[in-house]
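Onboarding guide, step 5: your first structure request.
Type a short instruction followed by the sequence, for example:

Predict the 3D structure of this protein.
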Amino acid sequence: MDKSSSSSRKDRKTIEKNRRDQMKDLYSQLNSLVPQDASRSRDGMPLPDQIDEATNYITNLQGNVESLRQQKDSLRGGTSGSGGGGSSRGRRTGLSNSPVQVQINETGGALEIILVTGLE
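The system replies with structure tokens like these:
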């Protein structure tokens, strides 16, 4: 029984070490995705501060995306809100006798622009 207890303890230690290594790799990946501020180095920054910085960066990006989406809608003449959801919208732009046609499709968060030239 002492052998199984010792084996079980080693297994738990190995599992915990693997979990810590995986978390360390994930933190490192997250840290690499956030642009580094020239005035501060994140290497010496505590982990909770690094996570706060990543969270703030993501929040700012979401605000920028929303602002750009509204700007895009106003430029397209659309009145749709920020929903976007999973709907797909398409719009053709260009004169019927124009040699250039542009089709803009929005599906969820993706924007597809199709440019067709030389329709003669």
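Each response can be followed by summary notes, for example: Residues 2-33 form the longest helix (32 residues).
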